[in-house]
Amino acid sequence: MHFTKNATTLKSKLYGFCFLRKNFFYHTIMSGYDFYKKQHWRLKKNLQCLKNFFHNLPKILIFFNFKIKKIFFKNRPKFYNF
Question: What does pTM read for this prediction?
Answer without folding.
Answer: 0.30
